[in-house]
Specification:
The chain has 18 helices and 14 strands. By secondary structure, the protein is α+β, with helices and mostly antiparallel strands. The longest helix is centred in the first third of the chain and has 19 residues.
Length: about 475
């Protein structure tokens, strides 16, 4: 379940909806926002990390999909936990064959396929195995692969201290090209483990090139060729890729069974007794080396997020969620004192703070389908005060920032909620490179001073206002709507 912050107006308690609270009727209605999908919210019960903590992206799946943003672990690491992994069975016809005799080497490191057909690198008899659940389009996964992994390979994998097994965990609602990338990598894997690891590395190195492509198939084909794949075999696999897609989906289900909802996520297994421990986020090298050493020695590693929380003490309520910050600004109608947009009754017993992205399709569905019901049953009845904060996800929604700027500028002329609804209704009109004229047209339709509106669009203060909301949400928002 995604995180949504609720504030009890009488006691000013600040909490997540996954904790027991007394406003059950309101929670049921508010939860309806998220039950049908979100562009990447936090899993229920997972602690949120500080803005400078290791990154991991998380998401929750729409109801019709099997899965559900780890910026800074765009996730906080879950508590250390022992868990038994249920590895999906893979038929011999679907899985690349494990090397039976000669050990293959890639960049001087042993590589191969596990008995289940999963690619690994490291000594087969290493005392610790790390299962890495990753998304080729996730920027934090790329950071791990390109910045941390080389040191891990040089200092730990080469020394036989750990073996890494790669598992696919594409977050489709955040990264629409992640599953096609995983399928492409699996098609290359059919031609051998060396080709797979070359393709794996190329996909992460060229992430910026294909992540936003409308159709990355040609780029993937070029990378496959660069990885040394036979292109006739590769194209045949891509054209009939159901078996590879099924393998990717099974890997996603496996990650979810382990409680993961963000990437990169890691499951450390001590081979001597099968004890396992989970870690989420693009953690620094020292965390990995300490964990691997501790686990190999028979100990239980310390969760870095838990240590950070203990060191920092109880988190402080941010100003925008306090009684003072949520109070209506007497000088700016429609704004709270903290500068956020609100509607409803400021004296309502409950406050819902929504973080949203104007280009997010799940935010749109919430606004157009669910919000009217919430308005009628709770907001219009004085039961809930609703507060809006921006959280544009630039990596997947390149026009979300410009829409947020337009909303800020309309708000300066008292028309925030009006443009809010229109932006979602007309998403197809402004999700294109040359969209300024669209925003100006909407401003004119709303009766705004278009000259002042245009000046506002170019005002650095407008950018600062949106970035401020983004910073407010970064410690806990994993996707939108939250």
């Amino acid at each position: 379940m995604p995180v949504i912050y609720l504030i009890n107006q009488e006691e000013r308690n600040y909490m997540k909806v996954n904790r027991p609270i007394v406003w059950a009727a309101v929670l049921v209605a508010a939860a309806a926002i998220f039950l049908f999908g979100a562009c990447g919210p936090t899993p229920a019960g997972a602690p949120a990390s500080a803005p400078d903590s290791p990154a991991a992206e998380q998401q929750q799946a729409p109801a019709e999909a099997p899965q559900q943003e780890a910026a800074s672990a765009e996730s906080a690491s879950p508590e250390n936990a022992s868990a038994e992994a249920s590895q999906p069975e893979t038929s011999a016809a679907e899985a690349p064959q494990a090397a039976e005799q000669e050990q293959e080497m890639y960049n001087g490191v042993p590589v191969g396929f596990t008995a289940e057909g999963h690619p690994f690198r490291g000594a087969a008899d290493a005392p610790v195995t790390v299962y890495e659940y990753s998304d080729y389009q996730c920027p934090f996964c790329a950071r791990h692969v390109l910045q941390t992994e080389p040191a891990l390979v040089d200092n730990l994998v080469r020394e036989g201290k750990v073996k890494f097994v790669f598992r696919d965990f594409p977050l489709d609602s955040l990264h629409p090209n992640a599953t096609p990338a995983a399928v492409a990598a699996n098609c290359v894997a059919q031609q051998g483990i060396i080709s797979f690891w070359r393709m794996h590395d190329l996909l992460f190195r060229t992430q910026d090139e294909w992540a936003s492509a409308a159709d990355p198939a040609d780029i993937f084909a070029r990378l496959a060729a660069d990885a040394g794949a036979d292109m006739d075999l590769y194209q045949a696999c891509i054209e009939d890729s159901q078996a590879q897609l099924a393998k990717v989906q099974a890997s996603v289900a496996e990650a979810q069974d382990l409680g993961f909802s963000g990437t990169p996520s890691f499951r450390f297994v001590r081979e001597a007794d099968d004890a396992s421990f989970t870690l989420v986020g693009a953690q620094p090298y020292t965390i990995f080396s300490d964990w691997i050493a501790t686990i190999a020695e028979g100990g239980a590693p310390e969760d870095p997020a838990a240590a950070q929380r203990q060191q920092q003490g109880e988190p402080q309520i941010p100003f925008w969620a306090t009684a003072e910050g949520l109070a209506p600004d007497p000088d700016r109608p429609g704004y709270t004192v903290a500068g956020d947009f609100w509607r409803g009754d400021p004296e309502a017993p409950l406050v819902v703070v929504e973080f949203s992205d104007f280009q997010c399709p799940f935010c749109r569905r919430h606004t157009l389908n669910t919000q009217p019901i919430l308005d009628e049953q709770f907001i219009d009845q004085g039961k809930v005060m609703w507060v809006f904060k921006h959280f544009p996800v630039q990596s997947t929604h390149p026009y979300a920032f410009s829409a947020a700027y337009a909303a800020e500028c309309a708000a300066q002329q008292g028309k925030f909620w009006e443009i809010h609804d229109l932006l979602f209704q007309r998403m197809e009109e402004w999700t294109k490179p040359e969209n300024r004229s669209v925003y100006l047209g909407i401003a004119e339709e709303l009766g705004l001073d278009t000259d002042a509106f245009a000046v506002c669009l170019d005002d650095p203060a407008t950018v600062d206002a949106v970035n401020s909301d983004l910073a407010d949400g970064s410690p806990f928002v994993r996707g939108t709507p939250t």
